[in-house]
């Protein structure tokens, strides 16, 4: 019987690492493809998992450096590419928070090396010594980078709640209020400091700046529901381990993924991804893995 290729065995882990460093499923897949070519040509690999994590990490850091300029020139607000997660992804709170929109946006404010060190240390549980070997730095340097990255993330971290039945009940009230134009009812489910962020990438219409505050967000959403989004079909989904609303046109084409961030029964963040380039693979459920044992 043929032994399974270790690359296939560890693929969910490798994709999760690459995605958390890059914030893009397309870029993560590119990194995995390049890493597979290196793996295929490698000889005498004693610890396949450790070797694969190392090459994926290094490729992801290099790739992030290359795409940073494109993100700086992005039209409007750049949001991470959404990924469809399984309903049970929220059961692992560490995994769920690490791929949430809010966390990925915080990670986007770190440099490539800081981001990789934070992800490998805080999410995947690697020691500073292991990370030093992966990225070609000293233990001391990695320890300092990890300290800075943790402090940076802690100062910007938002409270996280994964997808749940309670959150979906709140979202049903939210959708009903938006569709009926009831500003008061909509504001009841929106936190006073709620933030609405849209990403059209210059390809489709979208608000180019964040909208902040319950009343401005409510009026913006009602305007959408009664105009450009009127008649779309909506469905619930789990995206980045968070509750989401997927809006489709009459022919079934995905138009918008609205990822909803809640604290208890209030909506604190709305992330609307409309850029068609970021919606191509949303309907493909992703299997994520943060298993840390490399040996």
Description:
By secondary structure, the chain is α/β, with parallel strands linked by helices. 49% of the residues lie in helices and 16% in strands. The protein has 12 helices and 8 strands. The protein has helices at residues 6-9, 11-22, 25-41, 48-72, 93-98, 101-107, 112-123, 128-135, 139-156, 165-180, 183-189, 214-226; strands at 84-85, 190-199, 211-212, 233-239, 242-248, 254-263, 266-273, 285-286. The strands form 2 sheets. It has a 6-stranded mixed sheet. A hairpin with a 2-residue loop joins strand 4 and strand 5. Helix 2 (11-22) packs parallel to helix 4. The longest helix is centred in the first third of the chain and has 25 residues, at 48-72. It is elongated, with a radius of gyration of 20 Å. The relative contact order is 0.16. The mean pLDDT is 92.
Number of helices: 12
Spans of 5+ residues with little confidence (pLDDT < 50)? none
Class by SSE composition: alpha/beta
Helix content: 40-55%
Could you give a short account of the major beta sheet?
Answer: 6 strands, mixed
Q: What oligomeric arrangement do these chains adopt?
A: single chain
Return the average pLDDT rounded to an integer. Answer: 92
Strand content: 15-25%
H/E element order: HHHHEHHHHHHHEEHEEEEE
Q: How do the strands line up in the largest sheet? A: 3-2-7-6-5-4
Task: Report Rg.
Answer: 20 Å
């Amino acid at each position: 019987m043929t032994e399974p290729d270790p690359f296939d065995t560890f693929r969910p882990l490798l994709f999760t690492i690459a995605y958390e460093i890059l914030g893009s499923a397309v870029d993560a897949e590119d990194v995995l493809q390049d890493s597979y070519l290196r793996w295929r040509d490698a000889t005498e690999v004693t610890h396949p998992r450790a070797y694969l994590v190392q090459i994926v990490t290094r490729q992801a850091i290099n790739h992030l450096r290359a795409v940073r300029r494109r993100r700086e020139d992005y039209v409007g607000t750049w949001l991470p590419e959404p990924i469809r997660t399984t309903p049970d992804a929220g059961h692992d709170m560490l995994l769920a928070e690490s791929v949430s929109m809010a966390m990925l946006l915080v990670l986007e404010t770190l440099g490539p090396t800081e981001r990789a060190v934070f992800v490998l240390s805080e999410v995947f549980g690697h020691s500073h010594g292991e990370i030093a070997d992966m990225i070609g730095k000293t233990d001391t340097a990695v320890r300092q980078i990890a300290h800075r990255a943790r402090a940076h993330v802690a100062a910007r971290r938002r409270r996280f709640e994964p997808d749940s039945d309670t959150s979906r009940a709140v979202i049903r009230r939210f959708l009903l209020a938006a569709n009926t134009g009831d500003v008061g009812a909509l504001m009841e489910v929106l936190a006073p400091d709620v933030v609405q962020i849209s990403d059209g990438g210059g390809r489709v219409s979208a608000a180019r700046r964040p909208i902040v505050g319950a009343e401005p967000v409510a009026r913006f959403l009602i305007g959408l529901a009664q105009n450009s989004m009127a008649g779309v079909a909506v469905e619930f989904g789990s995206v980045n381990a968070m509750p989401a609303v997927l809006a489709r046109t009459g022919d079934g084409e995905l138009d918008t993924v609205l990822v909803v961030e809640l604290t208890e029964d209030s909506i604190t963040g709305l992330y609307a991804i409309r850029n068609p380039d970021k919606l191509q693979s949303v309907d493909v459920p992703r299997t994520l893995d943060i298993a840390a044992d490399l040996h």
